[in-house]
Amino acid sequence: MTDPKKPNRGGEVSFRSLNRFKKENGQLVCTVTAKFVPVTEEIRQLQAEQRAKFDELRRKIEACPDSDGWIRLCEILEDSTDDERVKSSKGASEFLELMLELSQDAIFAPSVDVAIAPLKAALRSDHGKDMAQKRHEKDLEIKKWIREEWVIHKTKYRNNKTTFANAYVKRILEKFGVKRSSRTIREDWLKEI
Which end of the chain is more exposed for a tag (fewer CB within 10 A), N or C? Predict the structure, then answer.
């Protein structure tokens, strides 16, 4: 799309990407990021595709009964990004950016649950990763201890990893409060020793 505020500079056009929707003078408009690039057939094609996407999105937004409220919320959040107190707080500015992104995506959401579903999914995923990391850290500690014990006591068990693993299942439970199978001890933790 050519920017009407900028003159055409000898074979260059302002190629813009859609950023955020807002209402100005009762009309739906979209803020954009612009940069000047040489005119090519590929750029013309991208401009046409972008214009079509914008028109389709604008029609969807205008057809949505709650879009006016969502757009107003986006405008309020967008205005807050210029607040010096918000800018000075890294956490507050990151949170505001997240809320702005969620509200932009929620324009078509019929309910709050649908609007925050992406956030819930991300939180569940992060929680699962955290729990897996904690379990893995615990296993690393146990694995280290098992390997140390194997080096010290392998002659007592006649270098038999199965006998050692069977005996240490109970010791792991007593020492660490978790249950690990003899197979895990034998085939995973003592595999390369």
Answer: C
